[in-house]
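Morning. Coffee machine broken again, so started the prediction first thing and wrote up yesterday's gels while waiting. Chain of 197 residues, entered below exactly as on the submission form.
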Amino acid sequence: MSAAVLAWIARAISGARVRYSAAIPDASPRVYFANHSSHLDFLVIWCSLPPAVRAATRPVAAADYWSRGRLRRHLAERVFRAVLVARGGEDPRAAVNACAAALAAGEGLILFPEGTRGDGESVAAFKPGLYHLCRSAPDAVCVPVYLENLNRVLPKGEAVPVPLLSRVTFGASISLDAGEDKRAFLERARTSLVALA
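Came back before lunch.
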């Protein structure tokens, strides 16, 4: 299954309406960070990017989930070119290093700083990964992406999506300020995301 076909299917199922509250994303490396409430989340962000940007953008995904089964592995490795990371691994720096390497190679990333799927109604506190990535890649530009209604299109625990309208809002980019500590940066990043709701 090609990336273009998957993007069309994702748009059709989710009814995603895309809104840019700042500049339309370009092909320079970006970290797109979003709220997380559905298995469709990264796919809807990915298919909402302009084709040239999509081709250079990789989701950061849980290796234990995406390595299970032939189809998932094929989609993760061949179609999405996902950066697969271990959840709760022995070496948390390995995930940050893999993401930093992708940015250094000129690729964008899609990640979910909450670390797990939520209820779609609120945004949980961010895990420290986004901060550590920005420390490892100080030139990283981070773009908040707020997802609405995907928790109803494909609720947690369900396998079959229900076609409904959803919205994807891309916000203004932020970067780690010189001397900014972890708590301040993560709260600023979370606030920039929530403000798009």
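The beta strands are 16-20, 31-34, 57-62, 83-85, 108-111, 142-148, 166-170. Going to sketch it on the whiteboard this afternoon.
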